[in-house]
Design brief:
Three copies of one chain form a homotrimer. Chain A is α+β, with helices and mostly antiparallel strands and 256 residues long. The first copy, chain A, folds into two domains: 149 residues, 3-Layer(aba) Sandwich (Rossmann fold), CATH 3.40.50; 90 residues, Beta Barrel (Elongation Factor Tu (Ef-tu), domain 3). Chain A has five helices and 15 strands. A seven-stranded mixed sheet of chain A has the order 2-1-3-5-4-6-7, with helices on both faces. In chain A, strands 9-10-14-13-12-11-15 form a seven-stranded mixed beta barrel. Chain A is elongated, with a radius of gyration of 20 Å. Chains A and B meet through helix 1 of A and strand 1, strand 2 and helix 2 of B.
Chain lengths: 256, 256, 256
C-alpha cells in the first residue's frame, strides 16, 4: 500500500514541542503516514506569508499529499476548521485564508468543516487545534477516510487572494508577499507584469536592474524567482535589510 | 512488523549536524526506525524547559515510542546515561532530571544504566554521548532488544519534580515552567489551583484576567493552556517580553 | 527492498519552504526514499562551515546514504552540479568545495555532472537548483539509477581542503572550521598537532588549558571534540562570544 504524505506548514518553530506533538497524534492514528516538515517556523501569525509559501510549494508534492497548515491567529474563535479536497491534493487548516490561493489554483472540489467527534481529540481545550483537531483530521484522511466523514460540507469564508500590482507607464505599486531567510523580497509581479526587462527601476532612491540569476547581480537587482514572481535580491546580502521592507508592505517602483 | 517511533528532544538546534548524526547512527543500526523531531532546539542546557516539554508531549505518542532526550549539561561527568521503561514508553537520556516528570507520571517499571560495550560506539570521546551512547541505545531498543541488555539495573538519582505554587488568600507564588516561541508563559498552576476564575489578578502592576481562549483576550490574560497549566498570554504579542520573565523565574501574583 | 537514506544539508533554514519542496520533489520520484535533515540551517553561503559539518557527519550514516548538499552561493553560474560516488556513499551538490573533504576521505570512485534532461525538472529557472537539479538527481539515485545515467563524467574543479595549522615551538596559527550553536569553536588542530596536553596556551590574552570534557572545564578550555578536532569551549557559555571569533578566522595561540 502506498504511503500517504502529510506535509506540515506551521509557525510553531523548532524550539517548541507543538510540531512534534502533532506528529505523535498522527502516528497514533496512522503509523504508515509519511510526515515531513514543509515549513516548521513560518512568520508568526502571518496569513500572507503562509499562504504564499504553501502556494509556492504544493505543486511539487506527490498526488494526494495532505497539507496540514497551522498558522492560526484566530484559534478559539468561530473560524471554521477546514478540510479542502482539490483536484490533486488535500488541505487541512483554519478558514483564515492560508489555504485558499493554493487550493483555488489546484481546483476546489469539496470543503468540509471538521466537526466529527470521532476525529476531534477528547479534552480539546481551544488553544491548540493543531493537536486536537487538524492533526487527527489529517491522520484519518491519510488512512483513506472520505472527506465527508470528517464533518459537514461547508463554504470557505476567507477567500484570500494575493493583491494585484497597480501598473502605470512610469511606476508600479507592488506588494511584498514574502521575505526569505536570505533577505530576498518576493513581490507580486509575474512575468507578464514587466514588459521590458532592459529598463531600469528605482526603489527608495536605489537603482535596480533585472538580471537572470543571483550571481549576475551587482548591488541590488530584480530576479525572476523560483516561485514564479520577481524578487528583489542583493547578491550575498539582504535586500530586505537594505530597503527596510517586510512582508505585507506596499512599495513604489519608478520605471526610468 | 510495526515500526517503532523514536522521538528526539534536544537542544542541539537546526544549525548543527548533531541531531542529524544521531539519526544516522540510529539508521545504521535499524533502518526501520521511524525517527522524528519532538523538539530540535530546546533552550540550551535548561533541565526545567526540557522536562516540561517532554512531560507535555509524551502522552500523545504511540505505545512504545522511545523518547531520546539529549539536554545534557553534565556530559562527560559521572551522571548516569539512562534507559527508563515505563508503563507505555521508553525514555533514553541523562540522569539529570529531564526524563523524570514524564517517566514518573507514566509509571516507572525498570531503569538501566547504559554500559554495554555492544551498544556504546567505539571511540566514544566523552563530549557527544547523544551520538555515542544515547542514539545507539535507542536504536537497539527500537529493534526489540530488552532494556536489561543495554547495561545494569540502577536507580534514578535526579528525581526532578515541578515546584508546587504557594497559594494564600491574597496571593500566589508561581514558577515559570516554560516560555514558548510566541512569548506565552506557562506557570505551574493547574485547574485546581485557581478556585475562582472570575477574580482579577495583578502581576508586576499589570491587571490580568482569566479568559477561555487567546482570541477573547484583550491585553494581558491567563488562559488554561494545552498542556494542562495556566499560561500568561498577550493576544498576538509576547507576555514574556512585556513582563520581563523567563523560564525558571518565580513570580508573585496578587489576587484582587 | 531496503530503503535508501537521503540526508539533506542546506542553508535554507526552517523558516522557508525550500527544504520542504526538495523533499516533495524527491517523494514524487521515489516514495520509498528515507529523507532526513542532517543540517537544515547551515551558516548562509559558507563553504567552510558546510564542508566541515558534512565531513564530521558522513561516516556515521548507513552504507550508500545519499548526501544532498545545497550550500550554493554560485547558483546560476557555470559551477558544475555534481554527483560523486565514493567507496561507501553518494554526494550530490555544487562543485564549490562543500562536498570535497568528505568525498575525498571516503575515496572518490566516479564523478558526474548532472545534465540529463530526464533528471532536471522542466522549467528550471536558474535560482533554485536544489529543487530543479539536485533533489531529482538524489531521488533517481535512491531508486538505483546508475550515476552515469545522470549526466556526463567530469572532473571536480573545486578541491577544497581544510587548511593546515602552522606550528612552531612557541605558537600555533590555527583556523576556525566551525562555531556551533553553543559557541564552541572548532579549530583545525588534530590529536597529533598538540604533543604536550599539560601545557598552557594563551589566546587573545586569555589562558586556556586542555581538559578531557566540558564538565571539567573552568573558564576557557580546549577539549578534544567529537569530530576529531580540538575545540575552544567555555563551560555553559560561548567561547566564540568571549573571544569574538567566527568561522574562517585565523587565530594565534601562544604556547607557554
Amino acid at each position: 500500500m502506498i504511503k500517504r504524505v502529510i506535509a506540515l506548514l506551521t509557525d510553531f518553530g523548532v524550539e517548541e514541542h507543538y510540531n512534534g506533538v502533532m506528529k505523535g497524534v498522527i502516528l497514533k492514528i496512522n503509523r504508515n503516514a509519511l510526515i515531513l516538515d514543509l515549513v516548521a517556523s513560518a512568520k508568526s501569525f502571518s496569513i500572507i506569508d503562509a499562504a504564499f509559501q504553501l502556494w509556492a510549494s504544493y505543486k511539487y508534492f506527490p498526488y494526494k499529499t495532505i497539507f496540514l497548515v497551522v498558522v492560526d491567529p484566530g484559534v478559539g474563535t468561530t473560524r471554521q476548521p477546514l478540510v479542502i479536497k482539490t483536484k490533486n491534493y488535500f488541505f487541512v487548516g483554519p478558514d483564515n485564508g492560508v489555504l485558499y490561493p493554493a487550493a483555488y489554483e489546484d481546483g476546489i472540489e469539496s470543503v468540509v468543516k471538521i466537526t466529527s467527534e470521532k476525529v476531534i481529540l477528547k479534552n480539546r481545550n481551544g488553544t491548540f487545534d493543531g493537536r486536537d483537531v487538524f492533526a487527527p483530521a489529517a491522520a484519518y484522511l491519510s488512512k483513506g477516510m472520505p472527506i465527508e466523514a470528517l464533518g459537514q460540507y461547508t463554504e470557505i469564508k476567507e477567500k484570500y487572494v494575493f493583491p494585484e500590482p497597480i501598473i502605470n507607464k512610469y511606476s508600479i505599486k507592488a506588494t511584498v508577499l514574502h521575505v526569505d531567510k536570505f533577505g530576498d523580497v518576493v513581490l507580486n509581479l509575474r512575468k507578464e507584469h514587466i514588459n521590458d526587462t532592459s529598463k531600469k527601476f528605482i526603489i527608495k532612491d536605489k537603482n535596480v536592474q533585472i538580471k537572470a540569476t543571483f550571481a549576475e547581480c551587482v548591488g541590488l537587482c530584480m530576479v525572476f524567482g523560483s516561485s514564479g514572481f520577481y524578487e528583489l535580491v542583493l547578491n550575498q546580502g539582504s535586500a530586505s535589510d537594505l530597503l527596510k521592507i517586510k512582508t505585507g508592505d506596499e512599495i513604489e517602483i519608478e520605471i526610468v
